[in-house]
């Protein structure tokens, strides 16, 4: 903690079972990290102030995956998306 904010590497578990493990800056996910939502969806990659930003891998509970570049939480640039039906 620095100035009352999460700072450095750490882990956060929410009441619903969502878990984030990775780097923090000023209390926000920033840098490398991974999250597993209570729904079963997952993301592993780069974060910028609580948003997917940079290169990452998203996996949905339903089996769809996206690996590639994201900008402020949205797919941006080159990437590969695979749906459960191929």
Describe the overall structure.
With 86 residues, this protein is mostly beta strands. It has one domain (8-82). It has no helices and 7 strands. It has strands at 8-13, 19-25, 28-36, 42-48, 51-59, 65-71, 74-82. The protein has a 7-stranded antiparallel β-sheet with strand order 1-2-3-4-5-6-7, with no helix packed on it. A hairpin with a 2-residue loop joins strand 2 (19-25) and strand 3. It is flat and about 45 Å long. It starts with 7 loop residues before the first strand and ends with a strand. The mean pLDDT is 94.
Portion in helices: under 10%
Rg on CA atoms, Å: 14 Å
Mean pLDDT: 94
Structural class: mainly beta
Oligomer: single chain
- Care to count the β-strands? 7
- Give the tally of structural domains: 1
Estimate what percentage of residues fall within beta strands.
over 45%
Shape: flat
- H/E topology pattern: EEEEEEE
Q: DSSP helix count?
A: 0
Question: What distance lies between the first and last C-alpha atoms, to the nearest angstrom?
Answer: 44 Å
Walk across the major sheet and give the strand order: 1-2-3-4-5-6-7
Low-confidence stretches: none
Give a quick account of the main beta sheet: strands, pairing sense, barrel closure: 7 strands, antiparallel
């Amino acid at each position: 903690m620095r100035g009352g904010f999460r700072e450095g590497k750490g882990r956060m578990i929410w009441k619903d079972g969502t878990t984030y493990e990775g780097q923090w800056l000023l209390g926000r996910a920033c840098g490398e990290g991974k999250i597993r939502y209570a729904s079963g969806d997952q993301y592993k990659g780069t974060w910028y102030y609580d948003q997917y930003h940079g290169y990452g891998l998203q996996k949905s509970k339903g089996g769809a995956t996206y690996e590639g570049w994201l900008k402020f939480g949205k797919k941006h640039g080159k990437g590969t998306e695979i749906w459960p039906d191929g």
